[in-house]
Amino acid sequence: MKQIFNLLLIGLLLGAVISAQAQTQDSYEYNSEFTWGINKNSAGGLIGGFVFKKARKLNQNMLETFGLEIMNVKHPQEVRHSSVYTGNFFIYGKSNYLYALRFQYGRDLILFSKAPQQGVEIKAVFAAGPSLGIVAPYYIERTIDNSIWASIREQYDPNNPNHFYSNILGTGNLFEGIAESKIQLGTNLKAAINFELGFLKSQVTGFEVGVLVDSYFKKVEIMPSTENKAIFPTVFFTMFYGNRK
């Protein structure tokens, strides 16, 4: 988290220096843009999820934005273990996945405009909207009667004596049990700094660093045997690409 904030500070300083000259040039005009990105955040795995955003200019310094984020939210105490029999990985104590669909409406304030073929465009990003939490069962594969030659896949239950650590052979199949998912409603709020580094007028390339809070109306049970919560604050970094006109 500290590294991300250091990166944000360095980026702001570099952007200010580079853009000082850029603002003396002709403005880098455009009316709308569409971007998509890959997100890394403090509540996700190696890849936290994907981000999509449509923006249109309201005036010279302000854009109206419509966004969608698709994220896999992890419990802070999730740890990967390997089966003593198969070597396959699983997360002991995890009973549910949380997939977050975040719908966002917001504003991008242009702090520094860029000139054609040079400079950095820097925006302050603010967005908020409803969150749709998909709580899907986390399936494990376990032994039957302590035999590794016979197994069954089912949702992990801390109260099931057959779900002891040494009986687990691995996880279930990808998206197994997704039809049994439950929906939880919530809201999200995001604040970030956006750095656009592209050199072509029709293309957008850059990164975004910021904070986001996902809040649900009741606690999301991801790991039943630990403390679960309804509010998920995260720090994130998103690499994005897109086009504008």
Give me the number of helical elements.
Answer: 1
Strand order of the largest sheet: 1-2-3-6-7-11-12-13
Strand content: over 45%
Number of strands: 13
Distance between the termini: 35 Å
CATH architecture: Beta Barrel
Supply the number of structural domains.
1
Q: What coarse outline follows from CA principal-axis ratios? A: elongated
Structural class: mainly beta
Largest sheet: number of strands, sense, barrel closure: 8 strands, antiparallel, barrel
The whole-number mean of residue pLDDT values reads 87
Radius of gyration: 22 Å
CATH topology: Porin
In CATH's first tier, which class applies?
A: Mainly Beta
Element pattern in H and E: HEEEEEEEEEEEEE
Low-confidence stretches: 3-26
Please describe the structure with a list of short key phrases separated by commas or semicolons:
245 residues, mainly beta, Porin, eight-stranded antiparallel barrel, three-stranded antiparallel sheet, 13 strands, elongated, disordered N terminus
Structural description of this entry:
The structure is a single chain. With 245 residues, the protein is mainly beta. It has one domain (2-244): Porin (Beta Barrel), CATH 2.40.160.20. It is built from 1 helix and 13 strands. Strands 1-2-3-6-7-11-12-13 form an 8-stranded antiparallel beta barrel. Strands 9-8-10 form a 3-stranded antiparallel beta sheet, with no helix packed on it.
